[in-house]
Structures are given as structure tokens and as C-alpha cells.
Amino acid sequence: MAVGVFDSGLGGLTVLQAAQARLPEVDFLYYADSAHAPYGVRDADDVFELTQKAVHALWARGCDLVILACNTASAAALRRMQEGGLPDGKRVLGVFVPLIEALSERQWGDNSPPREVAVQHVALFATPATVASRAFQRELAFRAIGVDVEAQACGGVVDAIEDGDMILAEALVRSHVDALKRKMPSPQAAILGCTHYPLMEAEFQAALGADVKVYSQGALVAEALADYLTRHPGMLGTGEAGYLTTGDAARVSDRATQFLRRQISFVGV
Question: 91 and 66 in one domain?
Fold first, then answer.
């Protein structure tokens, strides 16, 4: 009985690790579309087609509930899939909403009108595709008013992380934070709008300064998932736990083991 977790590559492991810690009794089947990563430089139609294919693969393996642990996929595909109609008994959830609920000081499922919140100046660090979609700003507008969001497309960061070049990733983080600060000198909060970026959370925090609150998605998504499964226990499905990739399984396993500091073995699909 497993919940599906999907990402274009390895960034979703940050969400998976938090979910496993929060829900040790739940099995998870992780699917990395490493052959087509990164998604952040692809157009919306391409991301939608790739995401839909991966979600259907997880459904076919018995995962009735799939978490899109990828902000680019959540931005480009989630609403489109939901509006197009999902098969009976199948659900897809994204990673934006738990983050926005935390930022806008809301409980899960609070659908009251948008209101003013304490944080007024927010820096959003995300992939070029997520920034272009403006999905974060759209979802935030449903819940909060008067929030100034300055988005910074962080080209190259995901590629560096996937390649295991953390020195380059750190340099790119500093460069992107500098670029953001030229547009918004004093952000109150920063959103790490890609599930790869928590791997560089300390570097983002150092570049932004200690007075900026950095929001990362893993724990927030895990808590939202725990709440969802409490209300929908039948969504655990019949799938088996494991790690799947469309890429080179040995290489992906090595990178995953490096990131999580424990042995992870992927199987090719």
C-alpha cells in the first residue's frame, strides 16, 4: 500500500524524506523522470505531457494518490490534470498549496476570502518554467492580499545539483540571490520554489541573511499529506514501495545515496 511521489529528478527526495519521517507507517513509491530532467527549462505543454505519463505509470502500479513533488510539474500540469477530470478513485496533489498556506497563515482547507498577512515582501526562487507560469502568485492571490512577490529564475541550479557539483550550485545560489536583492533589497521571506533547493537551504539562508525567513517545502508537504490521509485513509492504494527512474539507475542511485546519506537503490523503467 504505497503513495506515489513524482519528480523530474532527485529534488523530490527532499519531500519524500520528510514524508517518511512524518509517516513511518506509510510506504512510498518514488518515480524520477531523470531521462527528461530538468523540467524547469521545458515549455508548459511538454511538462504536462511528461507529468501525465509519469502519473499514469504510478497509478498503474497501484498508487491511487500521487504527490507531484516538483514545483514545475505542479505549476504546469496539476490544475490542467484536475480540470480535465481524474479517473475514479485517483488523486493528484501538488506542493504549492501547503507552502502558501504557511505563508498566508492558514489552516489546510481554509477557503475564506483573501486577507492581509504579516509578510508583505516575498522573494520566490524557482525554475524558469515555474517563474514563467506565475502559478505561485495565482495561488497566493486566492489567500492573501497586498503581498509583493519578486521572482528569480534560478537557471543552472537544478542541473548542478543533479550532476553532484555542489560547488557550482552554491556559486549559482549566491548569484541568483544577488540578482533578486537588486530588485527587492529587503525581502521578509524567501520561498524555495523547487524541491531541489532545500539541498541548498543553508546556502540560500547565508546569502539572504539571518533576518529573512526561508520557507522550504518538505515538512509542510509532509504535514499536509498526513492530514489528507487521516481524512482519506482509503487513498493508500495497493502499490509497493520502491524507487523508479527513467534514467541510468546506477547513476541515479549514487546521486540519491549522496543526497540522503543512506543507501538508495533505483530500478530503471
Answer: yes
